[in-house]
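Think of the structure tokens as a kind of shorthand, similar to the way a musician reads notation: each symbol stands for something richer, in this case the local conformation of the backbone. In the example below we present two proteins back to back. Begin with the first one, reading the sequence and then the tokens, and try to describe in your own words what changes along the chain.
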Amino acid sequence: MKKSIFALLMVLTVFVSCKKDSDKKPDTTSRNIRYEITGNFTGSALIASYTTAGGGTDNDPITSLPWTKEITYATNVTAAIIAISGNGGVAGQKVTLVIKRGGIQLGTPIEAVADAVGSFSKAAPVIVF
């Protein structure tokens, strides 16, 4: 009986102590955001439009995938957003956007799929500081 209880406790300890990174709660105090874009989009124009560290906006042409941008936002910036758009691609081509705050992924990845004319436009949810 003692061996059964001990074995059960060991199994429970392993399951309780082994959390995946995706199970971690985001650090809502971190002002460090990392944007990661991957995919197979081959269009003539792929652009990331995002809030800059100081609260302005910028548009980065993405010339190859994968693409990353890491920004530490100033304390006076109250929110940040990113949108991705592409054209000149092939219908069905995809890009995936992953957003990390303080090294922990926020939500599920955002996927954009090129439409019949090879274009897409997708905005991520706003990150509030």
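Once you have a description of the first chain, move to the second and do the same.
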Amino acid sequence: MTVSVVGLLSVITFILCRNAGLRVSHATVCIVLGFYLASSSFAEPISEVTQGLLDVIQSSS
């Protein structure tokens, strides 16, 4: 993932915390889960799916 995707996801998380009732504790749990997923065997398939989705989005615009 690129820095811009990480930045976009960070902005979305911030907006959800402020406006959609997402609590900071919920966001923290999701962040910790992300770190654990990144070091697990699920990391490569998740990365491939994410990259595929980004490729589709880029080719459609």
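Compare your description with these statements about the second chain. The helical segments are 3-19, 24-38, 43-60.
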